[in-house]
Structure formats: C-alpha cells, structure tokens
Amino acid sequence: MSDKLLISVLGWQPGDRVSIELARSLVATARRCDRSPVVLGEDRYLRLPVSVRAALGLRGGGRVFMVAVPHLDAVLVHHVSVLDEMVTGYYELDQT
C-alpha cells in the first residue's frame, strides 16, 4: 500500500523501521519503531503482514482507507467497509 502524501506528512523516509499490527477489528496501526524488522522501502509502500491482512479480511487487490495521525506518528489502515459506517455516523450526528 502506498500513499506517498501520508508518508511524507509524517516525515517517514525510506529505511525507517515500521511496526504494523492489528489495533482492533478492521483497523491496523503502522508506527515507526526502531526494533521492527519491517523497513520502509524506497517505494514508500507499507507492506501489511499476512496475519494483519487476514484479520482485516483483505485479499489480493483488496482496498483500504488510510489516515495519517501526525501527533501519534502513525498511519491507521482501515478496511474500506468501515468507511461507510464512518460517513453514515458522521451525518447522523450532524442532523440537528
């Protein structure tokens, strides 16, 4: 997965070590972590481990929704199915 804008907003550079783990159902978190064996390549792609892809229900070519969280130095990776719930919830709250 690559969203070079998100990666650049965070200041992540090729060679940075990145920890990617399941945060909760349908959400994974990627953070810089010196102890991680995962290295951000020159292409700046985040490569989700097989276990995380399986937990998110992603298959080859599966779509995700990525969000940068600069104050946490993290990227949240959501299964695209949660986008519908987020947008619906937002507009339900906005009905005043």
Report on this model:
- The chain has 96 residues and is an alpha+beta fold.
- The chain has helices at 4-10, 50-56, 81-93; strands at 18-24, 27-32, 64-69, 74-79.
- The protein starts with a helix and ends with a helix.
How would you sum up this structure in a few lines?
The protein has 96 residues and is an alpha+beta fold. It has three helices and four strands; from the N terminus they run αββαββα.
- Average pLDDT, rounded to a whole number, is 84
Termini, distance in Å?
38 Å
Using DSSP, what is the number of strands? 4
Total of DSSP H or I helical runs spanning 4+ residues: 3
Question: What is the share of helical residues?
Answer: 25-40%
Unreliable spans: none
Secondary-structure element string: HEEHEEH
Strand content bin: 25-35%
Radius of gyration: 14 Å
- Alpha-beta content class: alpha+beta
Profile the largest sheet. Answer: 4 strands, antiparallel
Gross morphology is globular
Give the neighbour order of strands across the main sheet. 1-2-4-3
Map the helices and strands.
Layout: H1 4-10, E1 18-24, E2 27-32, H2 50-56, E3 64-69, E4 74-79, H3 81-93
Antiparallel strand pairs: 1-2, 2-4, 3-4
From the structure above, extract its key features.
alpha+beta, 96 residues, single chain, four-stranded antiparallel β-sheet
